[in-house]
Specification:
Keywords: Membrane, Transmembrane, Transmembrane helix
Order of helices and strands: HHHEHHEHEHEEEEHHHEEEHH
Structural class: alpha/beta
Strand order of the largest sheet: 3-2-1-4-7-6-8
Helix content: 40-55%
Number of domains: 2
Distance between the termini: 119 Å
Oligomer: single chain
Shape: globular
CATH topology of the largest domain: Spore Coat Polysaccharide Biosynthesis Protein SpsA, Chain A
InterPro entries: At1g28695/At4g15970-like, Nucl-diP-sugar_transferase
CATH superfamily of the largest domain: Spore Coat Polysaccharide Biosynthesis Protein SpsA, Chain A
Radius of gyration: 30 Å
């Protein structure tokens, strides 16, 4: 009996050990599967983040428009070379775009450059101005007058050479191409002041920018509160700092064009500026006062304050050229005054005239 009992005990012990080993193996197998699943999840997440640029529909730098189909490194070196040569110490550049219609002698581009020459403390800013040209004629004209020019090449079916009329399909395509391009410049680490070429630079505007803002934009009409999202902005003049918030915002802005393809980038901006995603990103938006950044919609009334004047609320190249010439003559009369005369002066703009 003792032998039988001892054998049974030994058998039970062995069975218990086998069950313990089986349970342990089962738990180990489950743990390995869990770890494996976690690794798969992290792998997918990493791939998502790595490709997030493409996910947002915002092509990488090599997809932007350049003068030929060069390798990515060559494309980067060309535009970035121009930006690097023109940039300020903090990697800030001033950017405008130019086509043949506005580059003709005596047209908008000549007036634009003249404003820097006759403005107060604006001549030095020409060293930081990059002109992005849409066609070969505009590029040749730019090179004859300015040192930082870069030609963009659009697709064969794009026509940005002649006068592009407001809200036509060609205009919309040009504005969205420009938005995408500016996003790529932010992605390269450059801050920029974008300026339409029909904006006259009369004083150094950097003194009037807000130090803590990510994105600052001029207004057609300003309500007096730079934080108020109800202001009516104008996309022709903006100062944007390169950081994660602004880079994300340009991607979001560009993708939002698909909601209604009939809208231009300014209208889409008005639609998305109150979007919860934008506020969640903590993007700091400020609107610039028309007292300093005026235009034909709402002029800067005090010539002692004005930094820029924009030929906005004006249709037609000839009308813009006519009124901008008058505006520069008004400015020349003002700067010719002595300092004492300027303080007592009540000079005001003679424009708009043709742009009424």
């Amino acid at each position: 009996m003792k032998d039988t009992t001892a054998g049974a005990a030994a058998e039970n012990a062995a069975g218990g050990g086998n069950r313990a080993r089986s349970s342990f193996s089962h738990r180990l197998g489950r743990r390995v599967m869990q770890v494996g699943m976690l690794l798969v999840v992290f792998g997918v997440l990493w791939m998502f983040l790595y490709n997030s640029t493409s996910f947002f529909g915002f092509p990488s730098f090599s997809h932007y428009y350049f003068i030929d189909e060069s390798p990515k490194a060559d494309c980067e070196s060309r535009l970035e070379g121009v930006l690097r040569n023109a940039s300020m110490k903090d990697k800030t550049v001033i950017i405008t775009t130019l086509n043949d219609a506005w580059a003709e002698p005596g047209s908008i581009f000549d007036l634009f450059l003249e404003s820097f020459q006759i403005g107060i403390q604006t001549q030095k800013l020409l060293n930081h101005l990059v002109v992005l040209t849409w066609d070969q004629k505009a590029h040749a004209r730019c090179l004859a007058l300015h040192k930082h020019c870069h030609q963009l090449e659009t697709k064969s079916d794009d026509n940005f050479t002649g006068e592009v009329f407001f809200m036509t399909p060609n205009y919309l395509h040009m504005m969205w191409t420009r938005t995408k391009l500016l996003g790529s410049i932010l992605d390269m680490g450059y801050n920029f002041v974008f300026t339409d070429t029909d904006i006259m630079w009369l004083r150094d505007p950097f003194k009037e920018f807000y130090k803590d803002a990510d994105f600052q934009i001029a207004c057609d009409y300003f309500n007096g509160n730079s934080h108020d999202l109800k202001n009516l902005p104008n996309g022709g003049f903006k100062y944007v700092k390169s950081n994660n918030r602004s880079i994300w915002f340009y991607k979001f802005w560009f993708n939002s064009r698909n909601v209604d393809p009939r809208l231009n980038e300014q209208d889409v901006f008005n639609n998305i500026k109150t979007n919860p995603l934008v506020s969640n990103m903590k993007l700091k938006i400020r609107f610039l006062s028309t007292s300093y950044f005026g235009g034909f919609c709402e002029a800067s009334k005090d010539l002692k304050k004005v930094s820029t004047m924009h030929a906005n609320c004006c249709v037609g190249l000839e009308n813009k050229v006519n009124d901008l010439k008058i505006l520069l003559e008004d400015w020349k009369k003002y700067v010719a005054l002595s300092e004492n005369e300027k303080k007592q002066s009540h000079l005001s703009w003679s424009v708009p005239q043709s742009c009424r």
